[in-house]
């Protein structure tokens, strides 16, 4: 989800990274001068809920709506810092053998991806549970972790030359399956919210496939285009997994609808498209496999024409103010919000444009008219009440709500198992407690 090129980051002005949190209610962005966290629960108003002057941030990930945020900077690309941003305290930090390329987290696991290894931590106490060594070369740090903590599936490339996907159970620490997804190396992978579907795209960027998890069976195949190869930078399911959006280095964002075309439905509504679909299906058995496969692929249900091309961006589908929206954060520091018609699809309507840094220049139609400008971002000191003690030592690899003075509380297991937990820091503890083994060095090395 990073817009930069790993630890090197992009040059000049713009975003070094941008990522939506697990339920797309928050946007985190990093630049050469610091990072910011925004609330994206409203169309008209973009609230900056936290701002830090940590320089050259190229990874910043927030755990749902909690105060836990993970940061990696170019100054120390091998070190991961975990902060409680409302308290202004460091929870812990870990150092690794090489540059950190990606970090993924849910309420059970925190995953750190290096070029040839993957580290899996228990997010409750940051204990290192598993190190996957000698993984295929993964220069972009491509990986995905399901947000559903009940399964915590992890996906990462199984090959550097073809599009194989390894699906790993991060809860039980065992390999689930290997999916031969594409002929070319992988470019993007993502899980749906429940962890039952996995979408992937290759470096060619022409075909997007959706598989069942944990079986690894192909469920859908969508064609983004045929004329040119593109670099797909972002894939994201809608909260109900009925739609899938894909953005690339072109000016078009595609939204695909995940619906099965059963024979009974065709009989009940004999439309022209259903009739043609039957003809193509019958003819495909007489054609070469490559041609018949193209005839069976679905096209985009809805599209968005961005105002620029050639820039990396991150997209997500979210429900904001009870309506389906497409959000696109671009590397030039803009957030675009579009309305999506879930019934008819077609061209999506731009509703609002927000600036993510610098002067806040907003443009919009419809709902955006007549709204007051958003409040300016508070400084770091104004956002959090600084404690009297300094940051937690690097040897303290756990979390407590008070910043490390006493042992924190743990969310009960029955509460976690019941379903998603809303991590409101005013009333609940984020799911990380003080590490009972305070002697850990905070540094992990290959063994």
UniProtKB/TrEMBL annotation:
Q: Which UniProt keywords apply?
A: Autophagy, Lipid-binding, Membrane, Repeat, WD repeat
Q: Where in the cell is it found?
A: Preautophagosomal structure membrane
Supply the source organism for this entry. Clupea harengus (Atlantic herring)
- Tell me the InterPro entries matching this sequence: PROPPIN, WD40/YVTN_repeat-like_dom_sf, WD40_repeat_dom_sf, WD40_rpt
- Write down any Gene Ontology CC term: phagophore assembly site membrane
* One Pfam family of this chain: PROPPIN
Membrane topology classification: Peripheral membrane protein
**Name of the protein in question:** WD repeat domain phosphoinositide-interacting protein 1 isoform X2
MF GO annotations? phosphatidylinositol-3-phosphate binding
Q: Which GO terms describe its biological process?
A: protein localization to phagophore assembly site; response to stress
């Amino acid at each position: 989800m990073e817009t930069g090129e790993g630890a090197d980051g992009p040059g000049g002005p713009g975003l070094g990274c941008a990522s939506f949190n697990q339920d797309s209610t928050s946007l985190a962005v990093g630049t050469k001068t610091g990072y910011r966290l925004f609330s994206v629960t409203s169309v008209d108003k973009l609230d900056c809920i936290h701002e830090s002057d940590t320089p050259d941030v190229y990874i910043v990930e927030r755990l749902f709506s909690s105060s836990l945020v993970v940061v990696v900077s170019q100054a120390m690309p091998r070190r991961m810092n975990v902060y409680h941003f409302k308290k202004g305290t460091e929870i812990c930090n870990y150092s690794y053998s090489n540059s950190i390329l990606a970090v993924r987290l849910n309420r059970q696991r925190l995953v750190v991806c290096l070029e040839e290894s993957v580290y899996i931590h228990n997010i409750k106490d940051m204990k290192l549970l598993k190190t996957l060594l000698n993984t295929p070369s993964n220069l972009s740090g491509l990986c995905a972790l399901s947000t559903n903590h009940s399964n915590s599936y992890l996906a990462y490339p199984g090959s550097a030359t073809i599009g194989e996907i390894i699906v790993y159970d991060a809860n039980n620490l065992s390999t689930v399956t290997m999916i031969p997804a594409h002929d070319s190396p992988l470019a993007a992978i993502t899980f749906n919210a429940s962890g039952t579907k996995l979408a992937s795209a290759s470096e060619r960027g022409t075909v997007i496939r959706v598989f069942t998890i944990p079986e690894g069976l192909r469920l859908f195949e969508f064609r983004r285009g045929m004329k040119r190869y593109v670099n797909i930078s972002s894939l994201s399911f809608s909260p109900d997994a009925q739609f899938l959006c894909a953005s690339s280095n072109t000016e078009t964002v595609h939204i695909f609808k995940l619906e099965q075309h059963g024979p009974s439905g065709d009989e009940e509504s004999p439309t022209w498209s259903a009739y043609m679909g039957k003809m193509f299906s019958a003819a495909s058995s007489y054609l070469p496999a490559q041609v018949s496969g193209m005839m069976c692929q679905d096209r985009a249900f809805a599209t968005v024409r961005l105002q620029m091309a050639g820039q990396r961006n991150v997209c997500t589908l979210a429900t904001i103010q009870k309506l389906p929206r497409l959000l696109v954060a671009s590397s030039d520091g803009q957030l675009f919000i579009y309305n999506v018609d879930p019934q008819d699809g077609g061209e999506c309507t731009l509703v609002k444009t927000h600036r993510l840094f610098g002067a806040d220049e907003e443009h919009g139609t419809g709902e955006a008219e007549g709204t007051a400008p958003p409040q300016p971002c508070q400084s770091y000191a104004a956002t959090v009440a600084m404690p009297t003690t300094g940051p937690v030592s690097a040897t303290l690899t756990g979390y407590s709500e008070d910043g490390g003075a006493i042992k924190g509380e743990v969310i009960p297991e029955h509460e976690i198992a019941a379903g998603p937990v809303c991590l409101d820091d005013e009333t609940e503890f984020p799911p990380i407690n003080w590490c009972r083994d305070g002697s850990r060095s905070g540094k992990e090395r290959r063994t």
